Predict the 3D structure of the following.
Amino acid sequence: MNMPERSVKVVIYSRVSSKDQEKEGFSIPAQIELLRNYAQRHNMIILKEYEDVETAKCAGRTHFNEMVKFLKNSKECHTILVEKTDRLYRNLVDFVTIDNLPLDIHFVKENCIVSPNSHSSEKFMHLIKVGMARQYIQNLSEEVKKGLTQKAKEGYVTGKQPYGYRKLDKRICVIDETTSGYVKRAFELYSQGNISLRALTEKLYEEGFIYKQTQAKAHKTQIEHILKNPFYYGVISYMGKIYEGKHEPLITKELFDLTQHAFRKDNKPKHMIAKNFLFAGMIKCSKCGCNLSGEIKKGKYIYYSCTGGKGECEQKHIYIKEEIIEKQIIEAISKISITSEHKDWISSVLAESFKDEQKYAKERINSLNAQKQKLRERIDALYIDKLDNKISEEFWLERHNKWTQDLLKIQNNITAYEKANINFIEIGAKFLKICNEVVDLYKIADNNEKRELLNYVLQNFSMDGENLSYEYKKPFDIFAKGLNRNKKLPRLDSNQQPFG
Ligand SMILES: [Zn+2]
């Protein structure tokens, strides 16, 4: 057969664990044959073959380490062929070791190639398999599921701290001496009921009030926002509920109530609605890049349009009804809900992928603990020998130090295995649950919560005429695009690509 001019040079890697050897089809020769055939079909040149056979006695991965060393130093070879993910990685440490190298990895049985330029979805599924997805999922479950409500319940501010406060850490808000004076002043002036919001804004500006560094003068809606925030008298308001705050109040409840009373006299319902337009500031005009703003027409319909803030824009006079945008939003997030069929499938893929790995880690931890126990007993016995003058001080010291060192090494190994031994299946199930709840959560949410939710799932909204475009944030991109709900799922036992 003629070799093409530039054949890819590869190494092949195979591994069996002590447990594998009891099962059929897990032998080293079977893996090697598969990989050699694959190389031949793709006109690849095998430079080296590495294999690790783990026995109950010896779990080392001598040849894995040799391979890593070879690939690090090789100028002509950057490709590994391996049967399946779990042959190459046993844990997170292995994954990180490999991921740090600029390699193409062909998972032959999984029909999947991962390279430094791989699509993020491929890499992500890969990360799920080796457990790196844990961080994504932790963030999601913490924030989306319970984080914010819980924070509010505990009396901590749920988002950015209100004006006049600064954050000590992620949760604790304290009064900011440099800005809090203006807030107090605003409440005191407005509560008297003889000054309009506009006049108050002017007055504060003259007294040196700056709301944001980037703007010269505060807008009166920003002042209004401050004056209506119950945070200042010591509570947290979240999703329509009031929780007792952990922060020091800036004003009294009486002053706050007086202020609200002044609003009723002033009676400005338009502004109250205006600041709560669902999509305000979220969607950009596709033509000029300005944010769309909302307004009420005919007294009840909410329309959005380009503000034309960057000069003339052809879309400036196109008004889009809020429902038209929201319909497209719901369509977008409903694509990431996963059917029970998908769920079972993904769960079993995860379970299958990590079965060996989990078992292996457990076995290792058990045997390391046994070693530890034995070593401890030896150190104790040695000490008795020393007390009985059976051994010299020197000999005792030398042995004692060596064994203590060994003990430390064993403990480090145990810790490493425990860390790597994440409960992958539980993590996967948790993540899927969140995916499935996004639409339901959205439907019962108020405007603030909707924005919060969308912010987790979607990004880069832009409006072209009446068409909304957007992108999915990671990792939702895979579950929206990668898993077509009508597509038949690949079978687990086949050689099909599992994450097509
Ligand atoms: Zn525009």
The CA atoms of residues 372 and 409 lie 10 Å apart.
